[in-house]
Design brief:
The longest helix is centred in the N-terminal third of the chain and has 16 residues. The chain folds into three domains: about 120 residues, FAD/NAD(P)-binding domain (3-Layer(bba) Sandwich); about 120 residues, 3-Layer(bba) Sandwich (FAD/NAD(P)-binding domain), CATH 3.50.50; about 90 residues, Enolase-like, domain 1 (2-Layer Sandwich), CATH 3.30.390.30. The relative contact order is 0.10. The protein is globular, with a radius of gyration of 22 Å. Helix 3 links the parallel strand 4 and strand 5. The strands form four sheets. The chain has a five-stranded antiparallel sheet with strand order 10-11-14-13-12, with helices on both faces. Strands 5-4-3-9 form a four-stranded parallel sheet, covered by helices on one side. It has a three-stranded antiparallel sheet with strand order 6-7-8, with no helix packed on it. Helix content is about 25%, strand content about 20%. The protein contains eight helices and 14 strands. With about 350 residues, it is of the alpha+beta class. Pfam families: Pyr_redox_2 (PF07992), Pyr_redox_dim (PF02852). InterPro entries: FAD/NAD-bd_sf (IPR036188), FAD/NAD-binding_dom (IPR023753), Pyr_nucl-diS_OxRdtase_dimer (IPR004099). Its cofactor is FAD. One of its GO terms (molecular function) is NAD(P)H dehydrogenase (quinone) activity. This is FAD/NAD(P)-binding domain-containing protein.
């Protein structure tokens, strides 16, 4: 897509190429030693039979240099999406609104695992009313070429069935993908799940190497979300290059958003996370039908959930956690994030 490529160039690649002494090399990097890096090719996710069929990922939808030649060139009439996270729902709704017949398949019992159940269920109902089929509790057994394009054999509730579509989109979430990076040659320690081990300043076991983003897994409360990775990257660059005392990461104050319509915004701890930390808190769920602004713009569908610690002091209104599923969530999310930041 020319628009995406133009945006990528103007906002990212051009700026990087203008930095003196910095060379931008596209591809997958591998460490040869603590001070040498080589770029290699992407890898295929390990799903049954996936290596034998063409498939899409969110990274390949508009790629001009797609190594597998599977990037999308025209709208499919039907689309199977593997995964039930943010990317699956965002792209599923997009294609459904364009007229594609969309089926979302996830092995989890709930869409958007880790999100407040009330909000995830509300968003699922709103999306499904538009047409996409959302199926949870699915175990994929095989992916093979089909008469329409691709066929997925799955098991759900003890029954086996096969679904076909023109295109397959793999959006099974993110995980630390450190295999083949050569980190052992650089002396960088890894966790059991392959995530790069970092301290609170995002420094690895090698003093001059920092890590940020999905590659650190869930360390220090990290979330697989663009705003979190961007904030961590900025912090890691500061700690590595500024010469100032290193700063510690705090993922509790970074707002996150799922860009569906209505969108879903989150900041702070969830109900389950607060209880796991032993915090005394109260939860409040407010339908947007009771919010005057939602009525004024005729968008009353959605919920707000707040996890409140009653004994906090210093602010008249303190919402340590809030999840908002509804229109115009960004203004409320910024307020909540600022409140949480200044309460620290």
């Amino acid at each position: 897509m020319p628009l995406v490529q133009t945006y990528r160039w103007e906002r990212y690649e051009r700026l990087l190429r203008e930095i003196p002494g910095l060379e931008l090399v596209a591809g997958r990097a591998q460490l040869r030693s603590p001070h040498e890096v080589v770029v290699t090719s992407p890898v295929v996710p390990a799903l049954p039979g996936l290596q034998d069929v063409p498939f899409l990922t969110s990274d390949l939808l508009s790629s001009a240099d797609d190594p597998w030649q599977t990037s999308l060139r025209q709208q499919p009439r039907s689309l199977l999406i593997l995964g039930g996270g943010a990317i699956a729902l965002e792209l599923g709704q997009l294609f459904a609104r364009l007229g594609t017949r969309v089926t979302v398949l996830t092995r989890s019992s709930q869409l958007l695992p880790g999100v407040e159940p009330e909000l995830a269920q509300t968003l699922a109902e709103l999306l499904q009313a538009e047409g996409p089929r959302l199926r949870t509790g699915v175990q994929v057994q095989a992916v093979v070429p089909g008469s329409s394009g691709v066929a997925v054999t799955l098991q759900r509730a003890g029954r086996t069935e096969t679904l076909e579509a023109e295109q397959l989109l793999v959006a099974t979430g993110r995980r630390p993908h450190t295999e083949g990076l050569g980190l052992e040659r650089a002396g960088v320690a890894l966790e059991v799940n392959g995530a790069v081990r970092v301290d609170r300043t995002l420094r690895t076991s090698v003093l001059h190497i920092w890590a940020a983003g999905d590659v650190i897994g869930t360390a220090w409360g990290n979330q697989f979300a663009t705003p979190v990775g961007a904030a961590d990257g900025k912090l890691a660059a500061h700690n590595a290059l500024s010469g100032e005392p290193p700063r510690a990461v705090d993922h509790r104050v970074i707002p996150r958003c799922i860009f569906t319509d209505p969108p879903l915004a989150i900041v702070g701890l969830t109900d389950a996370q607060a209880q796991a930390e032993g915090l005394t808190c109260a939860c409040r769920v407010l339908p947007l039908s009771l919010v005057p602004r939602a009525g004024a713009i005729h968008r009353r569908q959605g919920l707000v959930k707040m996890v409140i610690e009653p004994n906090w002091e210093g602010l008249a209104i303190v919402w340590p956690e809030s999840t908002w599923c509804g229109p115009r969530q960004s203004r409320h999310q910024r307020l909540l994030s600022l409140q949480k930041h200044y309460k620290k």
